[in-house]
From TrEMBL:
Organism: Streptomyces flavovirens
Coiled coil: none
Pfam families hit by this protein: AMP-binding (PF00501), AMP-binding_C_3 (PF23562)
PROSITE patterns found in the cross-reference section: AMP_BINDING (PS00455)
Start and end residues of each AMP-dependent synthetase/ligase domain: 25-436
Catalytic activity: a long-chain fatty acid + ATP + CoA = a long-chain fatty acyl-CoA + AMP + diphosphate
Family statement drawn from the similarity comment of this UniProt entry: Belongs to the ATP-dependent AMP-binding enzyme family.
Keywords associated with the record: Fatty acid metabolism, Ligase, Lipid metabolism
Disulfide bond recorded as keyword: no
UniProt protein name: Acyl-CoA synthetase
InterPro entries listed in its UniProt record: AMP-bd_C_sf, AMP-binding_CS, AMP-dep_synth/lig_dom, ANL_N_sf
Amino acid sequence: MTSAPRPDGDLPDAPADRTLPQLLARNARAYPQLPALSWQSKDSDGGWRTFGWAEIHQQTRNLAAGYRALGVGRGDRVLLMMADRPEHWLSDLALVRLGAVPVSVYGTAAPEQITHIARNCRARLAVVEGAAQVAVWEPLLTDADTPLERLVVAEADAEGSHFPYAALLREPAPEQFADELDAARPEDPLTVVYTSGTSGEPKGVVLTHRQVMSNALALDAVVELPPHVEHICYLPFAHIAERMLGIYLPCHRASHVYLCADPAGVAAVVRMVRPAQFFGVPRIWEKLSAGVRGVLSLMPAEQREVIDRAFDVAREHVGHRERGETPPAELEERYTRVREDVLLPMLAAGGLDRVTWSASASAPMSVDVVHFWAGFGIVIMDAWGLTETAGVATSNSPRTGFRLGSVGRPVDSVEVRVAEDGEILVRGSSVFSGYLRPDGSVASALDADGWLATGDIGRMDEDGYLWLTDRKKEMIITSTGKNVSPALVENALKEHPLIGQAMVHGDNHSYLVALLVLDAEAAPAWAAANGVEATGGPAGLAEHPAVRAEVDRAVAAANARLNRSEQVKRYELLAEEWGPATGELTPSLKMRRRVIRDKYADSLTGLYQD
């Protein structure tokens, strides 16, 4: 189903020239009562509150007046460090209406990263969540090299000597204030998004209204969604994917946003909303599949046989669609039957029975995970892009075609080509302006012909589908001169449900070794299904001989599918999952290889000792 026509009123004729304030005004005028933003109340009843588009327009106007009274003006950058809560979402739009530039910061950012961002963007104001964030930001107020002057604190009774967020709304906006609002031009900066920093310091990516709108239009051309579709926000707004999916596209589509401030609670929100669209970075889909596999492993054999047969039918149906074929009538009938009788009831238990568009991006997706969800009839439309491309540059599509394992074809707003050394190059209307310098100027990263060297390695097939290999700087070069993609090897290792995370290592060595992390959800289920009793929690399971033997078999199975230079000769099995809080992953759940190598340097060295 495609989106219903939307009245554009007096919006510019060129869709890419529309600005975010113009879209907000259009939505308030055309859909005043339509739900726009919902969030769970902090009150004792814990119920959900909802604003319609007219309320959004009024709230952001009042907030903009409050920020203006604090001295925020056109072109000023304002830092935001909050979870996915209404204060963040509404402030983002209010600042844009004022002509300021919101800059979201990951809640898990280290103090040195926060300092770097504050100095680089030269913001004088930061809006933070509560006491924990105040403690991190407060020292910057007296730092001679940082221009930060004031903190606004969202949580009531946590502001101390700082400005309370609620005070922004105490006074109604004066009538003459309207003259200062909604004057953004398409070429003006809409936001600055700092890269999550897998290596080195974060860089500030400057994105304009036109670049973001170009990407929004290109995405609309490859997805099929109901009108005013709902979206669940649970990734940080500092992530380009959530900024697009959770802020900009909802304004473009006049859709309904549900805020999930705690990502650990997203499963409950999905069950409540039953969304038509769901986006997850690869690690999210891996964890979901591990959980479902754990449940399946505990089912009686006869029930599992019924489910496996349904999976086979769904995968056969997906295969025809992947090849661009109409499934035969007999297969269509079988698929309809197993979908109604077997698959939809299972999906409904998790709130995914209404999903018509499921997607992933950010890192190479394991083909095993993609094929697992295809068994439910869910095709994860893997996409690829960068913060620098305003999000998606290539995408699989239910409308224009898909290839499982690829990241799809280029969207309309970009051109993509592969250089002789395999590096992917991109240019187009949604490619960024450049990186922010401390003096406010923008340093372009494009070559003379407008191409951006992305740092990713891949290939383009004869049908125009892009296949990712790895990050250029993360390619392993062994002592024998072989180039190895670590992501390819790691995804092969993670095909076994016991292995939740993997990092391979081997630069300047004659063979590869690996650090493997036991999957926290799948391991207990596997142990129960196989009669394994272990004390001591995850650590006890990681040391159990039966678990070690199974992981040995998993590594051997992965090696059997890899060439000799890609095979893992030795590994260490770890029990504690890597995450952003402990530093091994970025806030967008990508591996920080340098951090992991440093943290486990002794273990990696030991794996090369006889």
